[in-house]
Amino acid sequence: MKKSILLLLTIITMFVSSAVAQEGRVKYYGEVFVAGDASWANMVYNSEKVANHNVLIYGTSLHTIHGVKIGDKFSLGLGVGIDILLGMDEESDADFGGLLIPLYLDFKYWIPTKGKVTPFIMAEGGGSFLIYPYTIAPLYGVGVGFKVSKFTMSLGYMRDGFNIREFIDDNDNLKFYEHKLQLRIGVSF
Predict the structure, then answer these.
(1) What phi and psi, each to the nearest 5 degrees, are found at residue 8?
(2) d(CA 183, CA 109)
(3) What are phi and psi of 17, to 5 degrees?
């Protein structure tokens, strides 16, 4: 895990330092958005699937991204947020909820246009943290969106979740992976 974080920081440093070399073309980029999720999940308990796309989850998220915009075409930032999950297993009618803290790199490719609408393609990768019991799971996603003045809107696929070892006792392991279609509405600055 430490090697992955060190590699990620090295890549960010190289990207930002090469961008700074293009003086005058690099500026701060920030974004705050709320998101609504419609998703399904896979749950694996002790290496045995207990649910396969049968757990319906609804959620809401509040995220912020801070980074740099290089010229008119690229932006790279660090995102952090809070994801609130509410779900129900169709087979057992069990309700559950959760709170995840995602921490990720956000990359956007802005498609230059002559109009007021600027479309973009985005990719994100990082980790999704569960506070108690402490755990981290991979987070990644892709999507498309647009910006009009300071208003942004995007639609994308995200995958996150948690992996809890020693869930009930030393031999138990619960993995929960959420696949979500996420609609984001926000402002950029």
Answers:
(1) -60, -45
(2) 18
(3) -70, -35
Q: Which residues pair with 27 in a beta bridge?
A: 69
Report which of 102, 88, 84 is spatially closest to residue 43, judged by C-alpha positions.
Answer: 88
What global pTM score does this model have?
0.77
Q: Could you tell me how many residues make up the chain?
A: 189
pLDDT, one tens digit per residue, over 70-110 is: 988 999 999 999 988 776 656 655 566 678 899 999 999 99
Site of tokens 């009009």: 148
Rounded Cα distance, 71 and 68, in Å:
10
The Cα–Cα gap between 179 and 6 comes to 27
> Where does 7-150 show beta strands of DSSP type E?
26-45, 48-70, 74-89, 94-110, 117-130, 135-148
Residue 169 DSSP class: S
Q: What are the pLDDT digits (tens) for 139-172?
A: 999 999 999 999 999 999 998 877 665 555 555 6
What is the predicted pLDDT for the residue at 5? 58
